[in-house]
Amino acid sequence: MRIFDPHIHMTSRTTDDYESMHAAGVRALVEPAFWLGQPRTSVGSFVDYFDALVGWERFRAAQYGIAHHCAIALNPKEANDPRCTGVLDVLPRYLVKDGVVAVGEVGYDSMTPEEDEAFARQLELALLHELPVLVHTPHRDKKAGTQRTLDVVRESGVPAEMVVVDHLNETTIKAVADSGCWMGFSIYPDTKMDEDRMVALLKEYGTDRVLVNSAADWGRSDPLKTHKTGLAMLAAGFDESDVDKVLWHNPVQFYGQSGRLLLDVEEVGAVHAGTGNSVLRGER
Ligand SMILES: [Zn+2]
């Protein structure tokens, strides 16, 4: 089984996780910028974090044979803190970098006016840089939050096929399926979606425009949930090519729209050794 985890926060995971992910078939991932738990108090903290995502974490993943990409953004929660909103002004210099394949995570947490402003400005940046967008949906009031998210995306002019709306469940999938946006599902050990509910949704809605991720972070989560979902699909009668589509081809197709996917891990290592002039790039 070859796996591309389209949403996982490796900054908060160990080297044991990298080893077990590789053993389970994970060969590529996208790490979106997010809230770190401890509130950040200055723009400089974000700059250091973004540098770690484009540099250090990519290097660390390559040691385990995994191609690391990231998405860069001011997350919705910290968009409410005036000490952090200056981050919006530093985003453009990151959105041109190799390894940055999307704007994200953006979207709503508590649906405040400040979140509206940050979300709209970052959708404009995605349009300007022709990058896909990873949109987080709120954990509370999920249905209303998802509908408002879809309205804002439509008004932004960003094409639906460039947007994944993430953390969906049975109550929000239909609206996103109808919108033309990609549908993201985070499979967790004990909240939100699990593998069996995911398989039931794949049976009902099919495998097009679906991304399955572990969204593993510093909370209770499991970086092998992508693999476990693949096993649950096989047990439910899907074949190997269905699993390969959901766990590999779909994320490659979605993030490949950036023109910046690096899917040959040895070459990712070569970039860091200073010899990388033959890096494989997806076509725009
Ligand atoms: Zn996340």
Keywords:
284 residues; alpha/beta; TIM Barrel; eight-stranded parallel beta sheet; 43% helix; globular; disordered C terminus; binds zinc ion
Description:
This protein is of the alpha/beta class. The protein has one domain: Metal-dependent hydrolases (TIM Barrel, Alpha-Beta Barrel). It is built from 10 helices and 8 strands. Strands 1-2-3-4-5-6-7-8 form an 8-stranded parallel sheet, with helices on both faces. Helix 5 (142-156) links the parallel strand 5 and strand 6. The radius of gyration is 17 Å and the shape is globular. Mean pLDDT is 93; it is low at 268-284. The structure holds zinc ion. Zinc ion is lined by residues 7, 9, 32, 34, 105, 215.
Write the layout of secondary structure elements.
Blueprint lengths: L2 E3 L9 H10 L1 E7 L10 H20 L4 E6 L14 H8 L5 E8 L5 H17 L3 E4 L5 H15 L6 E4 L6 H7 L2 E5 L8 H11 L4 E4 L11 H11 L4 H16 L9 H8 L12
Parallel strand pairs: 1-2, 2-3, 3-4, 4-5, 5-6, 6-7, 7-8
Helix pairs in contact: 7-8, 8-9
The structure holds zinc ion.
Total E-strand runs: 8
Largest sheet: 8 strands, parallel
Q: Please bin the fraction of helical residues.
A: 40-55%
Q: Which of globular, elongated, flat, extended, rod-shaped describes the shape?
A: globular
Taken together, the total number of domains comes to: 1
Distance between the ends: 27 Å
pLDDT average, as an integer?
93
What strand order characterises the main sheet? 1-2-3-4-5-6-7-8
| Ligand kinds | zinc ion
Residue runs with pLDDT of under 50 for 5 or more positions: 268-284
What Rg, in angstroms, do the CA atoms define? 17 Å
- CATH level 1 class label: Alpha Beta
SSE arrangement, N to C? EHEHEHEHEHEHEHEHHH
| Assigned CATH architecture | Alpha-Beta Barrel
CATH superfamily: Metal-dependent hydrolases
The tally of helices reads 10
Indicate the CATH topology: TIM Barrel
Structural class: alpha/beta
Measured by DSSP, the beta-strand proportion falls in 5-15%
GO molecular function: hydrolase activity, acting on ester bonds; metal ion binding
Family: Belongs to the metallo-dependent hydrolases superfamily.
InterPro entries: Metal_Hydrolase, TatD-like, UCP005295
Pfam families: TatD_DNase
